[in-house]
Design a protein that fits this description.
Blueprint (H helix, E strand, L loop, with lengths): L1 H18 L11 E2 L2 E2 L5 E4 L21 E7 L5 E22 L2 E19 L9 E8 L7 E9 L10 E3 L5 H9 L3 E10 L5 E5 L10 E4 L26 H6 L10 E8 L18
Parallel strand pairs: 1-4, 2-8
Antiparallel strand pairs: 3-8, 4-7, 5-6, 5-7, 5-8, 9-11, 10-13, 11-12
């Protein structure tokens, strides 16, 4: 009985120490997390303190120099999904860096307005045996009290690839602008759209592949064709949405068909405006 009581006291003391650990705000000495096969989080307290800064991240929309750092060793041949969770919804950014000594190469970066999020380091990026630095920063002045981090091993099925998910019914066009696109703006209004019913939609599950996990997808055809696979040389959808006068002035003498145009007014929250975007073509590389 005395032995069991002693072991229980020691175990509880260990839990209290782990629970009270603060996440590092210095990238020279980041906090350690570990890769595992289960979704097991390491929990840290967050102190409102001055932080060190690497380069400003690529996805620096509403960037605020309140950085916190953790790292883990990439010791798997598959992909690794870096998960973060809070007790409530927060506006924050997360970036992943390949750490080779004092050299840091940005691999992934995204902005979130959520209680949970993740970024994935794909196996084809091949950082096996090196350290991955995880960088978190918060947009608002008030920061959360704690955070959970987990690096989860994700198997890469042989002969398969990860496809992003497209949805054309969850959001209206106005909601795509106000709830998805302009999360960093104070207000968006006067939303208008020209295009087919499946020419615009919400995408998610886009990492690896794109440098951001979710957003709006637009197409002169059907966005439902965007995930692929691109197994045809003539995938096309006629939307009948006609031309656009501004595009027409750029291409005089040509007929423009199936124009897809999204317009809206907005009031920015700061003097910095940034959109992340990727252009693609069904005909590449035909």
């Amino acid at each position: 009985m005395r032995v069991s009581l002693l072991l229980t006291i020691i175990f509880l003391s260990f839990l209290q120490i782990a629970k009270g650990q603060s996440i590092s705000s210095d990238y020279h000495v980041p906090s350690w997390i570990f890769c595992n096969q289960e979704l097991e989080y390491t929990n840290f307290l967050i102190e409102n303190t001055t932080s060190t800064e690497i380069d400003i991240p690529e996805c620096n929309r509403n960037y605020n120099n309140k950085n916190y750092y953790a790292k883990f060793e990439y010791s798997t041949s598959g992909s690794v999904q870096v998960n973060v969770r809070f007790s409530e919804q927060n506006k924050f950014g997360m970036a992943l860096y390949l750490a080779d000594g004092n050299d840091f190469t940005e691999l992934k970066c995204d902005i979130f307005d959520a209680g949970e999020a993740y970024l994935t380091v794909a196996s084809q990026e091949n950082p096996e045996g090196l350290n991955i630095l995880v960088r978190l920063w918060f947009v608002d002045d008030e920061i959360p009290q704690d955070v959970g981090l987990c690096a989860l091993n994700v198997s890469d099925p042989v002969g398969s690839s990860k496809l992003m998910t497209i949805n054309t019914t969850t959001y209206t066009v106005s909601q795509l602008v106000t709830d998805v696109l302009v999360t960093g703006c104070l207000q968006a209004s006067n939303v208008t759209f020209q295009g087919g019913s499946t020419s615009i939609g919400y995408f998610s599950n886009a990492t690896p592949g794109l440098n951001f996990a979710e957003g709006i997808v637009m197409s002169t055809g059907s966005v439902l064709d965007a995930p692929g696979p691109n197994s045809s040389g003539s995938t096309s959808t006629i939307t009948g949405s006609g031309s656009d006068p501004q595009l027409q002035t750029l291409m005089p003498g040509y007929t423009i068909n199936d124009a897809t145009v999204l317009q809206f007014d907005f009031v920015p929250a700061s003097d910095v405006l940034e959109f992340q975007y990727v252009f693609g073509s069904e005909e590449y590389m035909e």
